[in-house]
Amino acid sequence: MIIVVPDTNFLIYAIKHNINIDYELDRTLNNYRVVILDCVKNELEKLKNRLKGKEKYSINLILSLIKKYKLEKEYNIGKYADEIILNYVEYHKKKNNKVVVCTNDKELKNKLIERGIPVLVVKQKKYFELQGYL
Description:
This protein is of the alpha/beta class. 49% of the residues lie in helices and 22% in strands. It has a single domain (6-131), classed as Rossmann fold (3-Layer(aba) Sandwich). The chain has 6 helices and 6 strands; from the N terminus they run E-H-H-E-H-H-E-H-E-H-E-E. A hairpin with a 3-residue loop joins strand 5 (119-123) and strand 6 (127-131). Helix 1 crosses helix 4 and helix 3 (38-50) runs antiparallel to helix 4 (53-65).
């Protein structure tokens, strides 16, 4: 089973470009489980309170979408979302679990690839592409 960990910007970007997240995950990966870290949900909640119009609608759509995924509330080692994601992934890597992080954040992507962790990115505003090896 592959643990899939999306970050906030990935979710926003996918919804903004009308990408069917579940379809693309099924197309790209086999036998996976999406885990939403509490820090990602909290970032979305904060954005929801600050935004208006289409942006707020997009955030509400994401918040309703992620309800069907596993919410990880227990793991919050780190100060910022990227740091928490990195620590969460390292923890599971040490337990020999397969983990993929979904992000379009270049800095986070580079840190993950340096550590040998595969990354799923949005390409051409249409589909997901896996970078790295499982």
